[in-house]
Amino acid sequence: KAGVTQTPRYLIKTRGQQVTLSCSPISGHRSVSWYQQTPGQGLQFLFEYFSETQRNKGNFPGRFSGRQFSNSRSEMNVSTLELGDSALYLCASSLIERNEQFFGPGTRLTVL
Amino acid sequence: GNSVTQMEGPVTLSEEAFLTINCTYTATGYPSLFWYVQYPGEGLQLLLKATKADDKGSNKGFEATYRKETTSFHLEKGSVQVSDSAVYFCVSTGGGNKLTFGTGTQLKVEL
Q1: With 80 as the cut, is the pLDDT of residue A1 above it?
Q2: CB distance B104–A42 less than 8 Å?
């Protein structure tokens, strides 16, 4: 069974630009969550989607948004990029609530 | 909201030494608890889990027991190997599928 895939793996953007990251969950998984990992703040929850609906949201500004498609694939978008948005963005999928989550390899975003 | 506090690293041990990484949590309700591991250059992997009080999770020689009375989920291994060198995260659930991560503990095992 294929794992969680994320594209692209690496991105370099400049301040003010916007970016879209993509995540394909494990087949059959309907919950997709996004996390930001930075050396200073560690791993922080961004949001979770289940059956195309945002079910939970972390404490991030409105520049961070996401969506989920009918095939459970998810995208997250960051608008008006800031230097502090440089991070590893991780996607995780799971089968049912409170079950284990499977993480993708992440997208490394660098904002210059 | 939920929070997780785990032992600061880095931790350096000799091969075959005993490992303990302390973890305590605060939560409303009864969260599930996990240890995730991140090997160098790899993604996060679930190491073990416990879903209710007194459950013991175990995998690859690692163990952790869900202690409700002390709100703890300490990770232990009797004899570490060089290949166990990684960053270990204590994690709790809180509100749907939201995971709350500890800061991570870097473990380095030397020959």
Answers
A1: no
A2: yes
